[in-house]
């Protein structure tokens, strides 16, 4: 019997051994950014623990924050940390549990062009509506030898509350004083230009079907949809294309000084190899979580930190740095 069939047989046997009605369900909702890795984790963990079913709605970080605040889910998920004001409004203590790291990429649909360099200044100009054409000198100057068309840029952004948006605009705020003043940070902002898509899925779909479009998505959504994405100039002055290795490099500088609440930004990080639009993503859980659901959630988090991290790179995410993993492992013991 081959390995796959053996595993299927074992999983079937384990499921058969679970009495009817004995399955406990945990419900979560939030960020679309980590949805591919969360789906993988929840499926794999169900094989390990057939009496637990984890359901997750990919509705955006804003929705995840709202639902965990209202206690309509067992856990939330966000790529943008909750603000002090949000946390103050919560009845209880919410823990931010880092799970993996990922990259937000400038995905583009430019017929005949697969390789492109961009900077934060140019990206801010595009999303402010000031750089309107693909052959604008600001873009052409970064891409000598590339034949850029004289077509208008269709800007695509998120229409829903989004941690992916938070990462993107947090980066632009660090690069562009004009962006900081006119638009600022947030999971939702007033966009000066462009059309909106819901979720990473929606933005990826719009970019893919719209010639001359430019939008921002989590890297795996660009990879899965075969959409090209640009290298971005980092703080060291190097053009770096997103990859798990480049995201790990961005996290390296903050790993040793991670705050105890894990709410940290790693955009525009130091390091020659760092990809500048990188971020942690977090599960949001109540610290006071007595009973079976709290115990089961804690058991899953232990598995995620020990075994689940190894599944991240294949899906385009970077695992937690070892020092951060050790800190999170201690932090989850507060749940209960």
Provide structural commentary.
The chain is elongated. Strand 1 (24-30), helix 2 and strand 2 form a beta-alpha-beta unit. It has two domains: 3-101 and 280-334, 3-Layer(aba) Sandwich (D-Maltodextrin-Binding Protein, domain 2); 103-255, D-Maltodextrin-Binding Protein, domain 2, CATH 3.40.190.10. It contains 13 helices and twelve strands. The strands form two sheets. Strands 1, 2, 3, 4, 6, 7, 8, 9 and 12 form a nine-stranded mixed β-sheet that branches. The protein has a three-stranded mixed β-sheet with strand order 5-10-11. It has helices at 3-16, 35-48, 61-69, 84-88, 120-127, 137-140, 163-175, 177-182, 199-209, 219-224, 244-255, 292-306, 322-331, and strands at 24-30, 52-58, 75-78, 94-109, 117-118, 154-158, 195-197, 213-218, 228-229, 231-233, 239-240, 278-286. The longest helix has 15 residues, at 292-306. It is α/β, with parallel strands linked by helices and 336 residues long.
Give the helices and strands, then pairings.
Blueprint: H1 3-16, E1 24-30, H2 35-48, E2 52-58, H3 61-69, E3 75-78, H4 84-88, E4 94-109, E5 117-118, H5 120-127, H6 137-140, E6 154-158, H7 163-175, H8 177-182, E7 195-197, H9 199-209, E8 213-218, H10 219-224, E9 228-229, E10 231-233, E11 239-240, H11 244-255, E12 278-286, H12 292-306, H13 322-331
């Amino acid at each position: 019997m081959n390995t796959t069939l053996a595993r299927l047989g074992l999983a079937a046997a384990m499921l058969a051994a679970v009495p009817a009605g004995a399955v406990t369900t945990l419900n979560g909702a939030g960020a679309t950014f980590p949805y591919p890795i969360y789906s993988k984790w929840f499926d794999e963990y169900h094989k390990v623990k057939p009496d637990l079913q984890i359901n997750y709605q990919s509705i955006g970080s804003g929705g995840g924050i709202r639902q965990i605040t209202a206690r309509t889910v067992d856990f939330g998920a966000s790529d943008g940390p909750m603000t002090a004001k949000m946390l103050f409004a919560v009845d209880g203590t919410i823990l931010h549990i880092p799970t993996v790291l990922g990259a937000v990429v400038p995905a583009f649909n430019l017929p005949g062009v697969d390789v492109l360099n961009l900077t934060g200044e140019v990206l801010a100009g595009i999303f402010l509506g000031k750089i309107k054409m693909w052959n604008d000198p600001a873009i052409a100057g970064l891409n000598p030898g590339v034949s850029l068309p004289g077509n208008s840029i269709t800007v695509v952004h998120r229409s829903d509350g989004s941690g992916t948006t938070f990462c993107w605009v947090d980066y632009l705020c660090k690069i562009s004083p004009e962006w900081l003043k006119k638009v600022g940070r947030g999971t939702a902002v007033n966009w000066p230009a462009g059309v909106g898509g819901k979720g990473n899925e929606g933005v990826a779909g719009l970019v893919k079907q719209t010639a001359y479009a430019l939008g921002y998505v989590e890297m795996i959504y660009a990879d899965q949809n075969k959409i090209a994405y640009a290298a971005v100039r980092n703080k060291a002055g190097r053009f770096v294309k997103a990859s798990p290795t480049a995201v790990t490099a961005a996290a390296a500088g903050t790993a040793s000084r991670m705050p105890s609440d894990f709410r940290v930004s790693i955009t525009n990080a130091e390091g020659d190899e760092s990809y500048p639009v990188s971020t942690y993503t977090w599960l949001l859980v109540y610290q006071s979580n007595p009973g079976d659901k709290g115990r089961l959630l804690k058991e899953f988090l232990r598995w995620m930190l020990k075994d689940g991290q190894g599944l991240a790179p294949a899906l385009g995410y970077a695992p937690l740095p070892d020092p951060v993993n050790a800190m999170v492992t201690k932090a989850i013991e507060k749940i209960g």
